[in-house]
């Protein structure tokens, strides 16, 4: 039996794909933004990365039905985008991180000095994380997202779950060394 | 390095504190309206569905059939042009002439796959009739223990001593 692709069907299919894509944007845009911001540490860059990720999804929207876990799939897309951008961009100085983190930190009744101190501390931690080897750093940053299990982190990084655990263990040890010897990161 | 329990506790506390910072940064709220901005950005992008878009859109079933025929006709035209071009080239240049003579040298039977390296094969000669050695020479060789050649060589030297000097040839005057 011949299946005829009528314009009505085509239009309906296109409409369904658009709606599916919009639903994905509504559901995962903020998650993707947070993933992007944790690496790029810049609001506009992170938003651009999210936009680019959904553009890639739009280009491959025919395959949307084949994806089992949209969340992990989208995080993997945005993760690759931000790593690529990070590789191309210069290393951000710590002062930029302090400024950006202080700007986006929630106030929570803190005074201006307390906020500045907190931002400085977070920027220092981020600088230490930057000193970690790439594999350990990536696992460390993804593990900070509480909604991601080790299985999902493994799926994002395309490695085994045991690799994720061993890398996380090494990352914690290295980070502890770096934090206890602050001079070693300068 | 000092691995005291206090040091371990400090290290753990520092790591926990660092992870808390990472979690805080990871949980920072996204800017308001990011979803709408992303959607707006997606709406403005022209989407190309196929690798090569067909310029004529089929309005109905008849139109679809027409487009299908046009595609077949276009494919046939491409095949015709390619085949015609190939035939034209063959006709213009003709087939390549074969070699006038067999240029491959005749192989010398060298045995095996190795070359003869320029060596010439010498045919085996047929054994001829055996020459009878004179009796006197045979006796001398057998009894005296000295070779006939040596004897002859010694004799010739003696003869040369006793021989009168021969007149030297006259110089050639040109």
Helix and strand string of chain A, N-terminal first? HHHHHHHH
Structural class of chain A: mainly alpha
Q: In CATH terms, what is the architecture of the domain at 1-89 in chain A?
A: Orthogonal Bundle
Question: What's the count of strands of chain A?
Answer: 0
Mean pLDDT figure of chain A: 83
* Low-pLDDT segments, ≥5 res of chain B: 50-61, 143-148
Low-confidence residue ranges of chain A: none
- In percent, how much strand structure appears in the residues of chain B? under 5%
CATH topology tier name of the domain at 1-89 in chain A: Rna Polymerase Sigma Factor, Chain: A
* Assembly state (oligomeric): heterodimer
Shape of chain A: globular
Q: Calculate Rg of chain B over CA atoms.
A: 55 Å
The sequence of SSEs of chain B as H and E is: HHHHH
Largest interface comes to: A-B, 45 and 32 residues
Instruction: Give helix % range of chain A.
Output: over 70%
Account of the 3D structure:
The complex is a heterodimer of chains A (186) and B (174). By secondary structure, chain A is an all-alpha fold. Chain A has a domain of 89 residues: Rna Polymerase Sigma Factor, Chain: A, CATH 1.10.1740. Chain A is built from 8 helices and no strands. In chain A, helix 2 packs across helix 3, helix 3 packs across helix 7 and helix 4 crosses helix 5. Chain A is globular, with a radius of gyration of 20 Å. About 10% of the residues of chain B have low confidence. The relative contact order of chain B is 0.02. With 174 residues, chain B is mainly alpha-helical. Chain B has a domain of 26 residues.
Entry keywords:
heterodimer; A: 186 residues; mainly alpha; Rna Polymerase Sigma Factor, Chain: A; 8 helices; 74% helix; B: mainly alpha; 5 helices
What would you say about this model in short?
By secondary structure, chain A is mainly α. Chain A is built from 8 helices and no strands.
């Amino acid at each position: 039996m011949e299946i005829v692709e009528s314009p009505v069907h085509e239009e309906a299919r296109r409409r369904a794909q658009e709606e599916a894509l919009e639903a994905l944007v509504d559901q995962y845009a903020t998650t993707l933004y947070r993933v992007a911001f944790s690496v790029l540490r810049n609001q506009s860059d992170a938003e651009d990365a999210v936009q680019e990720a959904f553009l890639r999804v739009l280009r491959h929207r025919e395959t949307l039905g084949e994806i089992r876990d949209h969340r992990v799939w989208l995080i993997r897309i945005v993760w690759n985008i931000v790593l690529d951008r990070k590789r191309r961009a210069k290393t951000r100085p710590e002062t930029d991180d302090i400024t950006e983190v202080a700007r986006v930190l929630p106030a929570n009744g803190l005074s201006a000095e307390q906020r500045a101190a907190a931002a400085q501390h977070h920027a220092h931690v981020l600088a230490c994380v930057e000193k970690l080897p790439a594999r350990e750093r990536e696992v460390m940053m993804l593990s900070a997202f509480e909604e991601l299990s080790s299985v999902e982190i493994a799926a994002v990084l395309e490695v085994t779950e045991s690799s994720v655990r061993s890398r996380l263990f090494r990352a914690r040890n290295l980070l502890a060394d770096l934090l206890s010897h602050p001079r070693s990161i300068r | 390095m000092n691995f005291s329990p206090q040091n371990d506790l400090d290290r753990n506390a520092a790591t926990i504190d660092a992870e808390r910072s990472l979690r805080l940064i990871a949980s920072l709220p996204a800017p308001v309206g990011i979803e709408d901005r992303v959607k707006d950005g997606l709406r403005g992008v022209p989407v190309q569905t196929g690798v090569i878009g067909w310029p004529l859109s089929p309005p109905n079933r008849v139109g679809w059939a027409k487009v299908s025929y046009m595609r077949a006709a276009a494919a046939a035209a491409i095949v015709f042009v390619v085949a015609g071009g190939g035939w034209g080239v063959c006709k213009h240049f003709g087939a390549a002439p074969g070699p006038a003579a067999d240029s491959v040298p005749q192989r010398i039977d060298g045995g095996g796959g190795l070359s003869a390296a320029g060596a010439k094969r010498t045919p085996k000669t047929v054994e001829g009739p055996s020459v009878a050695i004179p009796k006197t020479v045979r006796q001398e060789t057998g009894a005296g223990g000295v070779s006939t050649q040596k004897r002859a060589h010694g004799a010739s030297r003696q003869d040369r001593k006793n021989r009168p000097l021969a007149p030297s040839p006259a110089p050639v005057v040109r």
